[in-house]
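Quick one: structure tokens for this chain, please?
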Amino acid sequence: MEDRDDPAVIGRRVQRLRTDRGLTQRQLAEPAYTPAYVSTLEAGRVRPSDEALRHIAGRLGVTFEELVTGRPPHLATDLRLRLTGAQRTLATGATEAAAENYAELLTEAEAHGLTDIEAAALLGLGECAVEQGELTRGREYFERAERRLTDTGAPLPARVPALRGRALAHYLAGELRYAVYLLESTLDELNRAGLHDPDALLLLYASAIGPYMDMGAHARAAQAAELALALAPQAGDPALVARMHRSVARTLVAEGRLAEADASLAKAAELYRTLQLRTELANCHWMRGYVYAQNGRLEDAEAELRQALDMLSAQRAALYTSQAAVELADVLRRRGKSEEAAALLRTVLDDLTSERGAVHAAGAHRLLGIMAEEARDTEAAEEHYVRALSLLERAGAAGDLADLCRLLGDLLRRTGRTEAALDAYRTGLGHRTAPGTTTLGPAPAQPPL
């Protein structure tokens, strides 16, 4: 048994159990062994054979596993069953209950040295923290999971979920460049080393699409989407395939392929319904609402986004709720419901900061600026645009920066500040040139497909 304790620990355990049961060393040893052997074993000066330990376990009334590892019988199996239950609880949206389950599992796994379950519990706690908008705490859990896996010699594909979790936390915090660096460097290492694990590669490519799009690296995002689609038939995790379809929809929208984007989201939603993954299903409604809005179907977009918002609010997915609310506010404004949109955005800004949802915080300020312009309040509009600009510059969201610079430049020009307007336009043009190439290095190596 590879995970057996060292002889000194086993010796102390034998002595404690023997004493608790009121047995002498002779009684424990007979008839197969001598009292001297038991004494040497208890002192940790001999590495006992499995045969000797099975004899002693029988005399002490414990299982062989419990004697050599200190764990109750079937503990690892029971913990893995509970781990599956915690994963299901999280998938159905009961984040707080899932976090409690993962915390209990972590405590027990640490106490008994079950490092694989410990790492899985840390990953689960990281996912729960991100769902609740606690990005720093989530990132710390993912880092701990990665360290545990590294310490036990786990191969890179096994560490990918922890690495992806770290990248997700940085992305949602507005640190787009670092998120892309983590994802691309891991992809490069996997592909150059020939570690072509379909689930690991699919998870990384699908996760890179969002940051690529926000950085304006549309060509890189489209390439990641193509690779993800090619890997999907080989992947063994249906939830991962569904997530991939949702991410790919973003690149299809950017290319104007709205019908294909809608079809991709329908596939994802069907998989999520089958798996009862409530948060992911809500995200599908959210993305579908975005697709409808891009296609001018504003009534359908509002219905989808309201459904997403209701589902995410019920699951207390705070950060995702705020992000979906920004998309809904945009649709409400376009439908002439500006007062409702403004009230929604002000609520959202209470939950978003430069360290927590910077891109969507900037989106909220951008929309408030547009509505202020429509109300002829140019001073308030400029203030919102400048705030949005600061958030986007910190995040490195090049595509959104270019659009915002155009809005700010137009406002400055209309108010007679021509030089300031030209500066804003020049800044925007700088972000428009060769999207993605100014902030990203060479593309990572690709898998053989």
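The two ends are 39 Å apart (CA to CA).
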